[in-house]
Amino acid sequence: xxxxxRTPSSVWRNPIxxxxxxxxxxxxxxxxxxxxxxxxxxxxxxxxDLPVLMYIFVTVALFLLGIWLCRITTRDLGVHDHPGIVxxxxxxxxxxxxxxxxxxxxxxxWIVLGFALFxxxxxxxxxxINLLDRQVKGGFGIMIDDVVxxxxxxxxxxxxAMSV
Length: 164
Prior knowledge:
Mean pLDDT: 94
Strand content: under 5%
Structural class: mainly alpha
Number of domains: 1
């Protein structure tokens, strides 16, 4: 576990930093990545009824916005991938939840399963996630390892959905 890093005061004054920190969720002293992923759940609930192509379009737009937000925030803070930057977790979770099974009676089961699977891959960082995390820098580097973690979680979740 990474040592706690102080949350810069700019998170509360600079809207770019505020967004990169997931609306402040990344300022949590305990498990900022998990808190950032929690922020993604209400966003997913707002987006879940979109047609799949529109959902993917919005997720790609949030990914591209995230590259910019993370690049600017990293540059301003002088810390590559500050643990409080959680926009990448938000996008990674949205990727996991792409085309999640529908149905009001089981919706929360899939939301929780997607959360658990995404956090598993984001924390575990199997190949090539670990390689991307270490070697790719900048805003794209911050985002891409969570994109791949989201894809791994998505594949597993879709496999589970097809088997039930």
